[in-house]
Write a structure and sequence with these properties.
With 401 residues, the protein is an alpha/beta fold. It contains 13 helices and 16 strands. Strand 5 and strand 6 form a beta hairpin. Helix 1 packs across helix 3, helix 2 crosses helix 3 and helix 8 packs across helix 9. The protein is globular.
């Protein structure tokens, strides 16, 4: 009788993936794995035997017997493979060599000379090669490379459909890097990568439904639903920065007017700060303008120092951001919102107005249930999240490359 071996292989892969996901969280005995996964003891024994042979699982120690054969504790071997996570921003490429537990083993960073796809991708190739050479890792040994990019990404093809920051359209990042490096490459939005890192790597008890909002030169967001990135059908989910909050506002790089990003991002604060300095409404910024260009960091410093006009500028940004976040939480019934990005340097000047606006716009019965916090990982979240995208796919394939 004909047997569809591909079906049996897929079932095995699925079951091994379930075992690995449990062991990634904590060590367990074979009997505990059977209870946690619903698999039969015989199936667990056979599958873990293969995983041990592959080096993905170790028998760590024998526990005290409670009758019968002493149980053996199994644990995931996070050093069984290496991954490189890469984050592309407006100004630089950051990368990390990590193990399968997303523990960073080495970091590398290089500034971008320009924003053309050719120049940026060459920097990525250089940084990846440097990480491998300096840490004595051959490219072919890597499980894969994860790349986080500012913009809209078609995940299944690795194509950046649009990046207003980089001025890219339809750039095949994944296939170009795979051709240059000979390693599988997965491409993801910066916001999504950071959200994934905050969901899985922050070291705290985190909700499985999470909204990550990046507050920097641009305003972006990432969504994690049921522990997994949600990108939408075309990769546009999470484009909070291009929500229109003032249809009569300034024109955004996307072509619309009054987007959140053009009103409250770091670039927007810099522009508005320059206007305050030129008009004389902020003596602090007026003096600062004599020494150097007004940037978002200068505006934030003035606000923190107590300049009334700068404080109102930052507080107004917080109110806009808070309402925009509340709209997403109300729509998707999220449990947790995490904030990251350089604008958080404004501290309570930003966070007080943001929090008040956010909770004020939530549905009343949800206010006590939704947690709002600042990132625990910081600016490395995008890099580690990009690596985590690769690790998750590796685990979903039962530990297969």
């Amino acid at each position: 009788m004909y047997r569809d071996l591909s079906h049996y292989e897929q079932v095995k892969v699925t079951n091994q993936s379930r075992l690995l996901r449990v062991l990634c969280q904590k060590p367990a005995t074979r009997s505990e794995l059977a209870k946690l996964t619903g698999l039969s003891p015989a199936t667990v024994t056979n599958l873990t035997k293969e995983l041990i042979a592959q080096g993905l699982v170790d028998e760590s120690r024998t526990l005290e017997s409670v009758g019968g054969r002493p149980p053996v504790l199994l644990e995931f071997n996070s050093n069984a493979g290496k991954v490189i996570g890469v984050r592309i921003s407006r100004t630089r490429v950051q990368a990390a060599l990590v193990n399968l537990g997303a523990d960073a083993l080495a970091w590398e960073e290089q500034r971008l000379p320009e924003h053309s796809p050719e120049a940026v991708l060459q920097v990525v190739v250089d940084v990846v090669r440097k990480l491998c050479v300096e840490n004595r890792v051959h490219l072919e040994e890597l499980v894969g490379i994860g790349v986080a990019v500012p913009g809209i990404v078609q995940e299944d093809t690795g194509v950046v459909r649009l990046s207003t920051f980089l001025q890219w359209r339809e750039v095949s990042v994944g296939s170009q890097l795979e051709a240059a490096l000979g390693v599988p490459v997965l491409v993801q939005r910066n916001g999504n990568a950071s959200a994934l890192a905050e969901c899985h790597l922050n070291g705290e008890q985190t909700a499985t439904d999470l909204l990550y909002v990046h507050l920097g030169d641009g305003i972006g967001a990432g969504l994690v639903l049921d522990g997994r990135i949600y990108s939408g059908r075309t990769g546009r989910a999470g484009e909070i920065g291009h929500n229109i909050v003032d249809p009569h506002g300034p024109q955004c790089l996307c072509g619309n007017r009054g987007c959140l990003e053009v009103l409250v991002s770091g670039n927007a604060l810099a522009r508005q700060g320059q206007e305050l300095a030129a008009s004389g409404r902020s003596s602090c910024l007026q003096e600062a303008a004599k020494e150097a260009e007004i940037t978002a960091a200068v505006v934030i410093a003035a606000a923190v120092q107590g300049d009334a006009a700068a404080r109102e500028l930052v507080a107004t940004a917080g109110r806009y951001i808070g309402k925009a976040m509340a709209g997403i939480v109300n729509l998707l019934d999220m449990d947790e919102v995490v904030l990251g990005g350089d604008l958080l340097e404004a501290g309570d000047v930003l966070l007080d107005s943001l929090s008040l606006s956010f909770y004020g716009a939530l549905l009343p019965f949800r206010v006590p249930e939704v947690r709002l916090r600042v990132t625990t990982i910081g600016p490395k979240a995008g890099v580690l999240g990009a690596a985590t995208v690769v690790i998750q796919q590796f685990l979903s394939k039962g530990g297969r490359y």
